[in-house]
Amino acid sequence: MSANEIKKAIEHLSLGEPLELMQWLNHPADDEWDLEMKRDATAGKFDKLMKESEAEYREGRTTEFP
Fold it and tell me: Which of 8, 29, 30, 46 has the most CB atoms within 10 Å of its CB?
C-alpha cells in the first residue's frame, strides 16, 4: 500500500478514528525511546553524569528547582 493510498483511507475514517490512529502511531516511538534509555542506563552510559550530579549535590553546588 502506498503513502497516497494510506492518506486517502485516512480521509474516510469516522469521527474519533484519526485520534486513535495518531495514538497508535505515536505509542511505538515512545516505547522505542524508553527501551533505548534503559539499554543506555544498563550499559553505564549515564554513570559519569550520575556521579557528577551527586558530587555537585553533596558539595552544595546545586539549586532547588522552583
Answer: 46
pTM of the complete model: 0.49
C-alpha–C-alpha distance, residues 46 and 34, integer Å: 14
Q: Does residue 40 belong to any structural domain of this protein? A: yes
Per-residue burial over 12-27, b if 16 or more Cβ lie within 10 Å, else e, is: eeeeeeeeeeeeeeee
| 64 in any annotated domain | no
pLDDT tens string, the chain, 66 residues long: the values are 999 999 999 999 999 999 999 998 888 777 888 899 999 999 999 999 999 999 999 999 999 988
